[in-house]
């Protein structure tokens, strides 16, 4: 063991090796990064020798392994951590995969704004400083019917900002059945606590009545808050108070009525028989003072939180210190502006989220059948592939009870388990994320674009050849 340890070249010698110098030039990496990767590689070799997990013929053999490992470390370091993937799960708004895919026009506008200077906070007419709030406010007003609006970096930030600005040190009344937990263990009750708002829980998990709200109002109350339970669906012996009754109660007592909608549906999916999610416009029309919702859910845009409502309250939010803390950047505004314009122009099919939710099972079946005709026969023998009916989900904490009839392919192999197939697909470039059900790999074409089909086919060929 000690003899092998002595064969490990010193770092300064490795740093001067022509192979390492060529690698450094190729990758344009600093001396410190090269040195760090070589140190990590030599430490690995020492541990391998010490634990008797590796043997080497000579110093040249050790040197080659060190440089190979160092090169791999550097290449892995330079590889993007945020990568595009092909979503074969069928979940349209997959939170772990970035939720909404943006429309082409939104992407193009983001690139333009990123490449050049922009009018983020510049008024062209006056030649003076402008306000970023004006970039999308009119469009939000047009699609929601609100008097005013402001944009922050996500909907949890919307909730936090509204509560901090208007209910800090006061009580906000919320039904127990609406104290939801959103992704990542973030709870409405916790956000309220952080904002300095005192939560007044009323009713029970399954039933809340108007008199519960009436009895809870006292001199410390300044808000009635309704939270849309968009990430779960409760059925059975349930009851909630209609929105118009809560609005009337709040205004009779000079309280703010605030509703957190979460999913933010602007385009009415219920006209296609998909769910009964409340429209933002309907909530505004009911007399709500403030409404907040996400931009990257059913709206189909970038991650933002949108707060819309009465000008009196929105103007106060614009002047609040959190407005700067929670503001969004120029590229986010560019994507949001284009998405809102598509909604205003009724180009709903240009928004991938809406398009993918609305696509029919028959349309997907035609695509899958055409795709299967292109799959070589030898793949079908080594990697059994069959077209199949599937069920998709909207996802993203929206429409939890809705199942979308879908279509895709089912794969299995005698040579390798479904989990291993899934793992190999995750190691390809680009990565394909699939579902595994009863030792079958499921690839749902609802969330695979037509442009991605060639990549999927190439991956299946590569996968089959690896058996």
Overall tally of structural domains = 3
Count of alpha/pi helices: 20
Mind summarizing the main beta sheet?
Answer: 7 strands, mixed
**Major beta sheet, strand line-up:** 5-13-12-11-10-6-9
**β-strand number:** 18
| Helix proportion | 40-55%
Query: What's the CATH H-level homologous superfamily of the largest domain?
Result: Type I PLP-dependent aspartate aminotransferase-like (Major domain)
Structural class: alpha/beta
CATH class category label of the largest domain: Alpha Beta
Rounded to the nearest angstrom, the radius of gyration is 28 Å
Strand content: 15-25%
CATH architecture of the largest domain: 3-Layer(aba) Sandwich
What does the model show?
The strands form 5 sheets. A 7-stranded mixed beta sheet has the order 5-13-12-11-10-6-9, with helices on both faces. A 5-stranded mixed beta sheet has the order 2-14-15-18-17. Helix 3 runs parallel beside helix 5, helix 4 crosses helix 5 (59-78) and helix 7 (137-144) packs parallel to helix 15 (330-344). The chain has 20 helices and 18 strands. The protein is of the alpha/beta class and 467 residues long. It folds into 3 domains: 2-78, no CATH class; 85-93 and 357-465, Aspartate Aminotransferase, domain 1, CATH 3.90.1150; 104-347, Type I PLP-dependent aspartate aminotransferase-like (Major domain) (Aspartate Aminotransferase, domain 2, 3-Layer(aba) Sandwich). Belongs to the SelA family. InterPro entries: PyrdxlP-dep_Trfase (IPR015424), PyrdxlP-dep_Trfase_major (IPR015421), SelA-like (IPR018319), SelA_trans (IPR004534). Keywords: Cytoplasm, Protein biosynthesis, Pyridoxal phosphate, Selenium, Transferase. Converts seryl-tRNA(Sec) to selenocysteinyl-tRNA(Sec) required for selenoprotein biosynthesis.
């Amino acid at each position: 063991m000690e003899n092998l340890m002595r064969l490990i070249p010193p770092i300064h010698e490795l740093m001067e090796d022509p192979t390492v110098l060529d690698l450094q030039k190729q990758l344009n990496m600093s001396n410190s990064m090269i040195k760090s990767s070589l140190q990590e590689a030599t430490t690995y070799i020492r541990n391998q020798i010490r634990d008797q997990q590796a043997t080497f013929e000579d110093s040249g053999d050790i040197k080659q392994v060190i440089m190979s490992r160092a090169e791999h470390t550097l290449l892995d370091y330079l590889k993007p951590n945020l990568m595009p993937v092909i979503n074969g799960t069928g979940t349209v708004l997959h939170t772990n995969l970035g939720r909404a895919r943006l429309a082409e026009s939104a992407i193009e506008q983001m690139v333009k704004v990123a490449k050049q200077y922009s009018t983020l906070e510049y008024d062209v007419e006056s030649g003076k400083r402008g306000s970023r709030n004006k970039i999308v406010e009119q469009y939000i007003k047009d699609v929601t019917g609100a008097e005013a609006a402001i944009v922050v970096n996500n909907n949890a930030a919307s909730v936090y900002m509204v509560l901090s600005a208007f209910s800090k040190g006061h009580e906000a009344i919320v039904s127990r059945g609406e104290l939801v937990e959103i992704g990542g263990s973030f709870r409405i009750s916790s956000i309220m606590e952080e904002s300095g708002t005192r939560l007044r829980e009323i009713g029970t998990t399954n039933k809340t009545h108007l008199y519960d709200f009436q009895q809870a109002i006292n001199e410390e109350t300044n808000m009635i808050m309704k939270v849309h339970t968009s990430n779960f669906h409760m059925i059975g012996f349930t009851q909630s108070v209609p929105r118009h009754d809560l609005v009337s109660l709040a205004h009779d007592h000079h309280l703010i009525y605030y509703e957190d909608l979460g999913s933010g549906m602007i385009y009415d999916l219920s006209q296609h028989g998909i769910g009964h999610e409340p429209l933002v416009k309907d909530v505004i029309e009911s007399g709500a003072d403030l409404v907040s919702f996400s931009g990257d859910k059913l709206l189909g845009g970038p991650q933002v939180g949108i707060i819309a409502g009465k000008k009196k309250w929105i103007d106060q939010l614009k002047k609040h210190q959190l407005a700067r803390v929670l503001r969004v950047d120029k590229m986010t505004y560019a994507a949001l502006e284009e998405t809102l314009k598509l909604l205003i122009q009724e180009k709903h099919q240009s928004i991938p989220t809406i398009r993918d939710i609305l696509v029919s099972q028959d349309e997907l079946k035609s695509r899958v059948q055409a795709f299967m005709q292109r799959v070589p026969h030898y793949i079908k023998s080594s990697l059994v592939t069959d077209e199949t009916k599937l069920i998709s989900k909207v996802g993203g904490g929206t429409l939890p009870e809705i199942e979308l009839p879908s279509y895709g392919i089912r794969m299995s192999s005698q040579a390798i388990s479904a989990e291993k197939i899934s793992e190999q697909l995750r190691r390809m470039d680009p990565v394909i994320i699939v579902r595994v059900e009863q030792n079958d790999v499921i690839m749902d074409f609802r969330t695979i674009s037509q442009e991605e089909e060639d990549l999927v086919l190439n991956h299946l060929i590569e996968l089959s050849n690896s058996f």
